[in-house]
Amino acid sequence: MQEALWLLVVAVVLISAAAARFAVRGTRRLGTSSQRASYETLHTANLAAPALRTGLHTDAVERAIPHLRSLLGTPGLVVTDTEGVVAADNVDRVHCDRIAAAMADTVARGRPGMLTLRELACGDTMCPLQAGVVVPLLVDGRVVGALAALDETAAAGLLRLSSEVARFVSTQLELAELDRSRQRAVRAELRFLRAQISPHFIYNALTAIESYVRTDPDRARQLLVEFAEFTRYAFRGHGQFTTLAEELRLVDTYLELERARFGDRLHVTLRVSPEVLSVQLPSLVLQPLVENALRHGLEPSERPGELRITVEDADNHALVSVEDNGAGSSPGRIRRVLAGVGAGDEVGLHNVDERLRTVFGDEYGLTIETAPGAGTKVVMRLPKSHAAVQAQ
């Protein structure tokens, strides 16, 4: 009996020793404590990144915010956009409402702020959300939202840590914006290839040329030369930048062909500041605006058509406007056209707007003033200097 008990004790000791040795070896495989901490941090960040890469919207932030709070190690976390709270983790509505003004101030000023007990006091002396910090979220230097980390105290360390987490979130949001820009560029280029020469224009130009073949052969010959020059420019390498001077030459060629069709019904006024003729822009963005004015503004109208093209110097920008006194359109329809909804044969406007936004940024989209029967004015703002142009 004693011998059996002795054997049992020996077996337990051996098993315990083996287990301890395995545990030590397993710990070694995980690395040092600092390596394990780094692994946990990177792993948590990688769990948050995929959702944030889709943008600053509720579904994405709700999936990412638990991991962000784990990175901070705080009891609560709130993320807002420029309109208000997008998602909160372990923060109730009462506390969200109490910090709304502070977060709006951070978004407006683009600077970090501190949250005090006076702002967060909820009447519960045991509440862990008694202080905090608010830091802005930036995309390409533009404030798009804010992050508020709530804790029992708010020391300088929390502010530094929150700023680093906000920088990580901002980087993911910038990558999301880059992804959208690339997708938008692909879509815009496809539309560009499809719509750079309107079949409607080709038919009208050839019909106008044909009408002169017998009555005025010299005029027909000249129009054929103009048509060939126009198509040569339109079908050259795509995605290239050109100058305003070159775009205006193309527009002049285009209008020469259209005058053959409109005759005395079309009166064109061109006013150009020579200082901006060298400004560069994506090729073939001015002619579609002129074509849209003729086809959808002047052609449906029975009265003589006035077309005004103005190119002005505006400090760091060039302002290009195309204005007609034609049929006009409803602002709601124009918004749908620019959004790509029901654009139909007005796809040129949407295409130009999206190409400008893709190359220069969203602040460089088209501005359109119109109303039924009141004509249409389209304004295009171009930077005199831009990284996209300099990088070509």
Please explain how this structure is put together.
By secondary structure, the chain is an alpha+beta fold. The protein has 13 helices and 12 strands. It has helices spanning 2-30, 33-52, 58-72, 93-109, 117-120, 156-195, 199-215, 217-234, 244-262, 287-298, 331-338, 347-360, 387-390; strands at residues 76-81, 85-89, 113-115, 131-139, 142-151, 241-243, 266-272, 280-282, 305-314, 317-324, 367-370, 376-383. It has a 5-stranded antiparallel beta sheet with strand order 2-1-5-4-3, sandwiched between helices. A 5-stranded mixed beta sheet has the order 7-9-10-12-11, covered by helices on one side. A two-stranded antiparallel sheet has the order 6-8. Helix 2 packs parallel to helix 6. It is elongated, with a radius of gyration of 32 Å.
